[in-house]
Design brief:
Layout lengths: L5 E9 L5 E5 L2 E5 L7 E9 L4 E10 L25 H18 L23 E8 L5 E6 L6 E3 L9 H16 L13 E8 L6 E7 L7 H8 L5 E8 L11 E7 L3 E5 L2 E5 L9 H15 L6 E5 L5 H7 L4 E6 L2 H13 L5 E5 L2 H12 L5 E4 L8 H10 L3 E6 L2 H13 L2 E9 L9 E8 L1
Parallel strand pairs: 3-5, 10-11, 15-16, 15-18, 16-17, 18-19
Antiparallel strand pairs: 1-2, 1-4, 2-3, 4-5, 6-7, 6-9, 7-8, 9-10, 11-12, 13-14, 19-21, 20-21
Bound molecules: S-adenosyl-L-homocysteine.
S-adenosyl-L-homocysteine binds next to helix 5, strand 16 and helix 7.
């Protein structure tokens, strides 16, 4: 087999990123947009030692699991990997992915894995969107999404995962750029002003945040833009974020207020949260409620416990737990998020929470070594790369009765669960929650008890 070969094959499996897998004489090929059950024609892109990649050219016989995707751009856009798969089968795929990783990476023979909690309406669920600005081939300013694995922009203001306000906001910004002759940022030359826009909506409150990420310190005639944007119901916060670096990181460090306030407020369950542009906030509020309720349930609180919430962001889980705990300590590395967390504790009248700014793998060992802190329950919710080994080791030394591990990456979750179980814990429950319908991603809440 070699590059550019045209092959006919049947797809028999799915990879962790939602790609179809088919075998030719026992040699597996990964093929984006192909689904189990499809018989396809594919063109070989790359051949490695034990596997290869191919491009879907034509579907000869469609899989019975295939549906008509709602978005016409689903193949070219890098956002939704499995939109053509029926939602029921998406949930099955995610369950099997988590199970496979717990077995293979975690070494759990028969993991206690519950069915995935899905959504009734698996579209328009995202409260946050980040759109890049650029130019199309004719030099027109466009916004949309990056094509998968590239930085070329596919013009689209109507993403079916997002809120309807996105479209209105983007139209206003594009019109404004044209009228005021404001150039989009060009990654190659480093010139141009407007890089991205971050849009967030509080689903419970209706409040809207628009943050423009710019390669400079001001936007000419920005007050006029503010006038247009604030005609949209719910507009609460318009800010600028300065990013003059030539990097892939979207946001810089400084926030400049243009109109309204620098944050929006949202509510999950009975807790209110104030959210700044630079703070992490879960993108799917409907599913987040299920996620946090499960975490609270697993924490098994009676009102007396000392709880540590590591990687706490704006204190979302911390405050959920504080309603039923003796004392909660949160640890978070982003300063603005810690500011938000402290304000959020006050906003909800919760005085039994305290927040530390710093890395979990530094704050926890330091507090444990120097101040002999203890914990009845430790909750962790790290980014995709999982927990640092120093953090896991300290958690094990602290001997909490229960550990609740919330994770957005089941591979690093399985790796870390293995370490915790070798350190004296038993895996009691894994609850997957579908926070990201139409994509290959899946979130999990897990409970570990001390043996
Ligand atoms: N529990 C929160 C946030 C989870 S996202 C929620 O549900 O909303 C993960 C968070 O970990 C982010 O806020 C990120 O800024 C923070 N983070 C990343 N690396 C960290 C580290 N080494 N130590 C502490 N926090 C970290």
């Amino acid at each position: 087999m070699k590059k550019n070969d045209l092959l006919t094959l049947k797809i028999t499996g799915m990879g962790n990123e939602g790609e179809g897998i088919g075998k030719v004489d026992g040699f597996p090929l990964f093929i984006k947009d192909a689904l189990p059950g499809d018989v396809i024609q594919a063109k070989v892109l790359k051949v490695k030692k034990t596997y290869g990649y191919a491009r879907l050219m034509e579907i000869l016989t469609p899989s019975p699991e295939r549906i008509e995707p709602l978005c016409p751009l689903h193949r070219s856009c890098g956002g939704c990997q499995i939109q053509a798969l029926s939602y029921e089968k998406q949930l099955k795929f995610k369950w099997e992915k988590v199970q496979g990783q717990l077995i293979r990476i975690g070494g759990f023979a028969d993991p206690p894995l519950f069915p995935v909690l899905g959504m009734d309406e698996p579209f328009h669920y995202r409260n946050k969107a980040q759109f890049p600005f650029g130019r199309d081939r004719d030099g027109r300013t466009v916004t949309g999404f990056y094509a998968s694995r590239t930085h070329s922009i596919i013009s689209n203001t109507d993403c079916i995962l997002g809120v309807p306000e996105n479209q209105k906001i983007l139209k206003i910004i594009l019109d404004f750029m044209e009228k005021e002759k404001i150039a989009p940022y060009d990654e190659m030359s480093g010139e141009g002003l407007l890089r991205h826009v971050l849009i967030r909506k509080g689903f419970a409150t209706g409040e809207l945040m628009v943050c423009l990420i710019i390669n400079g310190y001001e936007i000419p005639a920005v007050e006029r833009l503010a006038d247009y944007l604030f005609e949209i119901t719910g507009m609460t916060s318009l800010t600028l974020n300065v990013n003059r670096k030539n990097t892939n990181v979207i946001m810089g460090e400084d926030i400049i207020l243009v109109r309204g306030q620098t944050f929006i407020t949202d509510q999950i369950g009975s807790v209110q949260y104030q959210i700044s542009p630079l703070s992490f906030y879960q993108v799917n509020p409907v599913q987040t409620k299920k996620l946090y309720e499960t975490a609270l349930d697993y924490a098994g609180l009676t009102g007396r416990e000392i709880v540590w919430d590591l990687y706490c962001g704006i204190g979302t889980i911390s405050l959920f737990l504080a309603q039923r705990a003796g004392k909660v300590y949160g640890v978070e590395v982003v300063p603005q998020a810690v500011d938000d967390a402290r304000k959020n504790a006050r906003l909800n009248g919760l005085s039994n929470v305290e927040f530390y700014l710093g890395k979990a793998e530094e704050v926890l060992p330091k507090q444990y070594g120097r101040n002999g802190i203890r914990a009845d329950v430790i909750v962790v919710d790290p980014p995709r790369k999982g927990c640092d080994k120093a953090c896991l080791d300290t958690m094990i030394s602290m001997k909490p009765e229960r550990i609740v591990y919330v994770s957005c990456d089941s591979a690093t979750l399985a790796r870390d669960l293995k370490i915790l179980c070798e350190g004296g814990y038993e895996l009691k429950a894994v609850q997957p929650v579908d926070m990201f319908p139409q994509t290959a991603g899946v979130e999990n809440v897990t409970l570990l008890n001390r043996k």
